[in-house]
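Practice problem 4.
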């Protein structure tokens, strides 16, 4: 979670794993030329509130020059080691998603064999693994960790997983809250596309797209859907939380794409005109207030943007023949190259601040999921074998 949009973070999936990773949500194209915005009350039309702009004629976020990562091959310094005990404990079953909670604990989902046709997210169970103590703990049955989810961490035993259709909260290694947000809101918002929960203010941010009428609307509502406010945006195609007091809304104005940071208190917006042919697709926030997104629709190339909320900058890095799949942790993310000229894949670590892409292994085959530790020392990744097994490895200095 998602799937939320026109594009998803790409995964190379075995047929079995695909059952665990398939969302029931339709893809979301960018909606243009909206005319009216419908309210949540069937048959009613709500006028769009006027937008108060804080920075007319200037840019709120500084959009930096597009660059390609600087590649450095340091594969000789790192070794891949199979996590034999963990693989044995999960019986070599396919997994979905990996995330570090700290340098010693990871979470991931394992295929449970239920093959639920109505809710594919129930086809996996969520586990935590303590690397130091070699301990596996099941945290939540029938829950899939998707690679586009954001993990908000209090400590290794308490965290939340937030996606554009659901939220799971774990407290002291037990489920505190598990909600299917799409099912909760679809009666009042039948054209819901995204719904994001904010656990700091207990509000829901909802994006509706009506493909028949070509209209879109962004709503803010309380946790029980009793009080709803429509935000002053038309032609919106993404809405996302920046923090508990601000939301980000990307919308089209003619052929231009505009990113607005909207203040919920004074109902004002600070605008950034994105460069020509640039967009704000599939945002995913990290622990250090960096939001990664696609600034163009990805194909073989992956055009990743990095919005730093603290520094108010947008960096853009165009990855050739690569497919990063890990979340951002402390300004780093992991990925692997895909090249028709190379039989096997290269595992790499990308550092956002320096724009350096460090090759850490050159001999990885059938890699499909990975995560980077907070200190950047350890990359854990999963590979699928010809006989259908999944094996997890650790990449780090000997």
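Answer key:
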């Amino acid at each position: 979670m998602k799937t939320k949009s026109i594009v998803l973070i790409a995964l190379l999936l075995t047929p079995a794993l695909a059952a665990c990773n398939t969302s029931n949500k339709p893809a979301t194209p960018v909606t243009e030329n909206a005319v009216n915005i419908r309210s949540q009350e069937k048959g009613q039309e709500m006028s769009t509130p006027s937008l108060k702009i804080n920075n007319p004629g200037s840019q709120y976020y500084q959009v930096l020059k597009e660059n390609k990562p600087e590649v450095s091959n340091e594969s000789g310094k790192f070794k891949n080691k199979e996590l034999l005990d963990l693989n044995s404990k999960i019986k070599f079953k396919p997994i979905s998603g990996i995330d570090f909670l700290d340098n010693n604990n990871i979470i991931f989902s394992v295929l449970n064999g239920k093959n639920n046709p109505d809710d594919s997210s129930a086809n996996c169970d969520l586990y935590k693994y303590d690397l130091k103590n070699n301990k596996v703990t099941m945290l939540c049955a029938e829950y899939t960790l998707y690679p586009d989810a954001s993990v908000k961490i209090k400590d290794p035993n308490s965290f939340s997983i937030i996606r554009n259709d659901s939220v799971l909260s774990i407290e002291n290694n037990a489920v505190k809250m598990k909600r299917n947000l799409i099912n909760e809101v679809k009666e009042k918002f039948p054209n819901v596309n995204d719904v994001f929960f904010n656990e700091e203010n207990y509000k829901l941010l909802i994006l509706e797209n009506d493909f028949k009428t070509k209209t879109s609307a962004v709503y803010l509502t309380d946790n029980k859907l009793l009080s709803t406010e429509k935000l002053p945006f038309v032609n919106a195609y993404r809405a996302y939380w920046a923090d508990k007091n601000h939301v980000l809304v990307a919308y089209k104005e003619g052929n231009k794409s505009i990113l607005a940071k909207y203040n919920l208190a004074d109902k004002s917006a600070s605008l950034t005109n994105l460069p020509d042919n640039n967009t704000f697709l599939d945002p995913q926030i990290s622990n250090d207030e960096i939001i990664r997104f696609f600034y163009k629709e990805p194909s073989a190339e992956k055009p990743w943007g990095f919005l730093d909320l603290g520094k108010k900058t947008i960096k853009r890095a165009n990855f050739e023949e690569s497919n990063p799949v890990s979340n951002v942790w402390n300004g780093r993310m992991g990925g692997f190259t895909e090249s028709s000229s190379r039989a096997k894949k290269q595992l790499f670590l990308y550092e956002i601040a320096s724009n350096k892409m460090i090759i850490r292994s050159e001999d990885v085959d059938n890699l499909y999921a990975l995560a980077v530790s907070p200190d950047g020392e350890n990359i854990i990744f999963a590979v699928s074998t010809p006989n259908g097994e999944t094996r997890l490895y650790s990449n780090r200095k000997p």
